[in-house]
């Protein structure tokens, strides 16, 4: 819920900025960057302008905190392209570039300065490098039994308890009941249960607070331990 509030506040700030600069082409481009990776290059120019001659271009990048972008985590090229290194959740927000350039009419020696603003809403995201999808089958007396659903709910609780200390959790659990014809035997009712084990359960960051290296890598490796997760 708080993530939606934060994003809404960022969008309101973005629209206010557009209004102040009287920019009617102020459309934000959404960019999603996996945490601890480098962002793609954000280009401070549109396609139409890139096909033309641009005189005395100057690029001003403003970050989510409203300040000029600078620091070791910033890679800014001479042509105004921006890359944010080792992107983290706190870096999410609005990245705005104002391009100023000149147009010159040689016949009357008229020189004008123009401005264009480009905006990017950049968000950090996480995803596991590894997940295990597990499928198991259980025999039941009859597919129409209400007890099948009760069994499934109890199974989910048991699985969560087994892996809770590892800050792993079960996601997308589901089950279906099918009638199976077994060779040389009669019909058999079976529950087909599937689920995934995901390493990013609530509390995984707190567990890793004392680790000086990449906590996310540690968490991803944890799910590779079938004997534990």
From TrEMBL:
Domain Zona-pellucida-binding protein 1/2 N-terminal: 28-126
InterPro entries: Sp38-bd (IPR010857), ZPBP1/2_N (IPR048806)
Cleavable signal peptide: none
GO CC annotation terms, alphabetical: acrosomal vesicle; extracellular region; zona pellucida receptor complex
UniProt-listed GO biological process terms: acrosome assembly; binding of sperm to zona pellucida
Annotated Pfam families: Sp38
PANTHER family: ZONA PELLUCIDA BINDING PROTEIN SP38 (PTHR15443), ZONA PELLUCIDA-BINDING PROTEIN 2 (PTHR15443:SF4)
Record's protein name: Zona pellucida binding protein 2
């Amino acid at each position: 819920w708080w993530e939606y509030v934060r994003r809404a506040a960022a969008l309101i700030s973005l629209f206010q900025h557009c209004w102040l600069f009287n920019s009617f082409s102020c459309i934000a481009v959404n960019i999603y960057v996996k945490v601890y990776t480098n962002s793609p290059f954000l280009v401070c120019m549109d396609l139409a302008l890139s096909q033309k001659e641009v005189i005395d271009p100057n690029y001003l990048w403003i970050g989510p905190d409203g300040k000029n972008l600078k620091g070791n985590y910033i890679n800014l090229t001479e042509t105004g392209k921006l890359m944010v290194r080792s992107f983290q959740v706190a870096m999410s927000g609005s990245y705005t570039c104002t391009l100023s350039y000149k147009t010159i009419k040689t016949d009357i020696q008229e020189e004008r300065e123009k401005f264009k603003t480009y905006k990017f809403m950049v968000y950090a995201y996480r995803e596991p490098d590894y997940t295990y999808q597990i499928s198991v089958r259980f025999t039941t007396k009859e597919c129409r039994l209400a007890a099948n659903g009760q069994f499934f709910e109890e199974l989910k609780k048991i699985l969560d308890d087994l892996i809770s200390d590892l800050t792993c959790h079960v996601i997308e659990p589901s089950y279906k009941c099918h009638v199976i014809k077994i060779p040389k035997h009669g019909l058999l009712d079976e529950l087909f249960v599937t689920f995934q084990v995901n390493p990013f359960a609530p509390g995984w960051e707190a567990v890793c607070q004392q680790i000086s290296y990449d906590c996310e890598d540690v968490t991803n490796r944890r799910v590779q331990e079938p004997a534990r997760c």
